[in-house]
Amino acid sequence: MTGTAPLLVLDAAAVRNWCRTGCTALGEARAEIDALNVYPVPDGDTGTNLLLTMQAVVDGLAADTDQGDLPDLAHTVRTIADAALRGARGSSGVIFSQLLRGLAEVLSGCESATGADVQHALSRAAETAYAAVAHPAEGTVLTVARSAAKGAAEADPADLAAVVTAAADAARAELARTRFQLPQLVAADLVDAGGRGLVVLLDALAAVVTGVAVPTARAGPADRRVLVATRESGSDAYTYEVEFLLDAPDDAVDGLRSRLDGLGDALVIVGGGGLHHVHVHVNDVGAAIEAGVDAGRPHRISVTRFADQIAAESQSLSRVVAVAPAGGIAELFRAAGADVLEGDRDNHPSMSDVQAAIERAGVEQVVVLPNAREMRAVADNAAAAARAAGRTVIVVPTRSPVQGLAAVAVHDASRRCDDDVVSMSAAAAATRYAEVTHAIHDAQTSAGRCRTGDVLGLIDDDVALIGDDVGQVARGLLEWMLVGGGELVTIVVGSEADPRLGGDLADHVATLAPSVETVVYVGGQPHYPLLIGVE
User: Fold this and answer.
1) Residues 6+ apart with CB under 8 A from 335
2) What is the pLDDT of residues 33-62, one digit of tens each?
3) Burial category of 453 from C-beta neighbours within 10 Å (exposed 0-12, middle 13-18, buried 19 and up)
4) Which residue in 215, 350, 391, 410 has a CA-CA distance of 20 to 30 Å to 119?
5) Structural domains of the chain ordered from first start
């Protein structure tokens, strides 16, 4: 986020910002969440379904805005609930739509939402989600939602930032406990996929309210082969997933629920006011659709065979191995779904270290991000050795962690590896990178003579500015880099920089280019007070 002051209330603009931010965050976490998906069926699509559900929300809000002036909070949250209901995908998306419906029931009565309103809304969201699931199980997104509501309720209702932060923290703690609650998660040593998605959305809400983004560690398995084995031995009681929208009177839902409950499991029915979203796992697809016809008018019917889905997902499995300094930057890569090999320019991993990281990925297709010019040859040699052993390993030549972050943000394990590498390479190439450091000796540079201790501003590994103040040099770099335009500025603050500097620079970007988004992370990297990327 941009280091702005915490919000005192949630208005329509803030809620819209949360939906956009949450959708982006789910996009970044999609592959990770898909990899966690072993319950109720190991079909590897929870992250994708949550992303598609939230994208439907964002699209609905955009279409709503196109009609005229920015709607108020009540209209905005009703639009969100309706768009989520219509666009929900999979059991996870359907449950999420009901969580959003519960939020809307409370927030639609507010001109702007206070901390106390949000406490009530989170509690209502958890209640409605539990009520929508035929047989609620603990250790799922439902448990995480309930704990988030409880955490929020224990915060000061007069402090919105404290409420949303407490909700996110409680959700994260409960997510960790799901690893020990469901037999499928215990066997795979994983946390719940839907719960992880909810943590992503609550973290996004906290970021919007507080103005501070906190990277969270990836929750995927240490060895991908463990996950694949778990999926292959997963539940096979039901063969198909059936979903449809249903136009029907609300009083017809109880009868439909009873019939579908007798046909399968994972039954979720959400909605109201004549429109419902139905999700169930069955063996008899025709009987499930017939039950919908008897209750009302089913439409937008979707049928998925799990065996086809699992086979396609396992064939396209790929992983990213990223070299990154320990601390905040490493955690950013983990949060984006990458396997991290810790190291930096002063402590280079060896070729054998990179080979071992490729082996630990546990899949046949691996993309390596060296993230430093000095690591390129090492990564190339390790990749060549791995290819000789039969793996598909490709190095995307990232020369800075900010280029690596841009590349991993577009990584999609479901794509063909070649197509994925093209997208990652394009994202990295479109990111100019800069660094602020100190001269360790007198030298002649392309920007003139520097003295030991001078502040150096480098753009694409070439000295562009020399000064005596880190902030001043950074502002100069940003002005230089934004001359040609840009969409996103990434600022990673190192251990030697004033913690307030990231927010100050974000404000400077807002003045220079109001349409450019700025993201500030605490990286904690040594020797480089600032790393800057412009996409």
Assistant:
1) 28, 29, 32, 215, 216, 217, 218
2) 877 765 444 445 778 788 888 888 888 887
3) exposed
4) 215
5) 12-219 (1.25.40.340), 240-312 (3.30.70.60), 316-429 (3.40.50.510), 432-534 (3.30.1180.10)
